[in-house]
């Protein structure tokens, strides 16, 4: 097995394309239309750096937008947390839990309005999360 003349098969490789010297072909002429396209498609270092700069700016803008959406969502969650906490305190006061005497009672209309706001907040947050998840996939 240690035969120095034996080289391993390339494992399913039908043929190989040498990439060392693309300008020299083995007797075949490159069509003029492809030569024009190849010359036209050459990119300079400055063009490449400009493209990279623009890509980095787009990436940064997307990241800033994502952070802004996260901050807005966190603020909405804080507001909802305060509203839910107020509702829980009202429930505890109505249930007669000790230590809730300092809580001002809320009318049914106020409670219904607050419940409606919490429901709308949950809907808004869940739709925002769903759209963010869809953008990831």
Mind sketching the topology for me?
Layout: H1 32-40, H2 45-95, H3 108-136
Helix pairs in contact: 2-3
Q: How does this model look, in words?
A:
There is one protein chain. The chain has 137 residues and is mostly helical. It has helices at 32-40, 45-95, 108-136.
Radius of gyration: 33 Å
**What's the number of helices?**
3
Estimate the helix proportion, in percent. Answer: 55-70%
Q: Give the overall pLDDT as a whole number.
A: 82
Strand content: under 5%
Q: What is the CA-CA span between the terminal residues?
A: 50 Å
Note the main sheet: none
Give the structural class: mainly alpha
The backbone outline, from C-alpha atoms, is: rod-shaped
Are there runs of 5+ residues with pLDDT below 50, and where? none
Order of helices and strands: HHH
Number of strands: 0
Concise synopsis of the structure shown:
The chain has 137 residues and is mainly α. It has helices spanning 32-40, 45-95, 108-136.
Which structural traits does this protein have?
single chain; 137 residues; mainly alpha; rod-shaped
């Amino acid at each position: 097995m240690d035969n120095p003349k034996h080289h391993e098969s390339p494992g399913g490789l039908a043929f190989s394309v040498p990439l060392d010297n693309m300008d020299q072909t083995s007797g075949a002429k490159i069509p003029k239309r492809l030569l024009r396209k190849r010359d036209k498609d050459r990119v300079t270092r400055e063009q490449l750096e400009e493209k990279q700069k623009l890509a980095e700016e787009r990436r940064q803008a997307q990241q800033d937008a994502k952070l802004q959406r996260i901050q807005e969502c966190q603020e909405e969650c804080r507001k909802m947390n305060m509203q839910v906490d107020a509702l829980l305190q009202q429930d505890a006061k109505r249930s007669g839990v000790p230590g809730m005497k300092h809580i001002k009672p809320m009318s049914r209309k106020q409670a219904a309005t607050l419940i409606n706001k919490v429901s709308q907040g949950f809907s808004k947050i869940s739709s925002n999360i769903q759209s963010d998840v869809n953008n990831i996939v």
